[in-house]
Amino acid sequence: MEKKCYRLNEAKMYVDISDGTAIIINSVTGIYFGLNSFGTVVFERILDGAAIEDIAIFVKQVPGVPDNFDDSLGVFVKSLIENEIIIPRDDYSSVTVSIDAEVAEADGFVPICTAYQDVQELLFADPIHEVEEDEGWKPE
Fold first, then answer.
1. What residue ranges do the domains of the chain occupy?
2. Residues 96-120: pLDDT tens digits?
């Protein structure tokens, strides 16, 4: 069975991870996404090149993981794909998966990706979006 690996959609997405929380901005739409702590850890493993199946195997070994973990992981990954945050990776290399069990437990083993549109207009009002590659920014 071929494993599913993904990478960041660098053509559209900008990521900032600090204090255990990821913020992802779609530079085309202005929509940004926030991941909970467990979602951030899973997302980091995806960016490291870990296969979704390997992440699931690792987490299911943690005591207390709910029986429906595969479902919540599937919903999370589907959200990342549908929002074009991640795209398929062509290469697969075995990556050692490590996830802090305390982070997983604290979020109930549910990785979450939430979309926000409240700063969309503000992001597009930024004059950096009006820069012409060959001419540069022209203040009015």
1. 6-130
2. 899 999 999 999 999 999 999 876 5
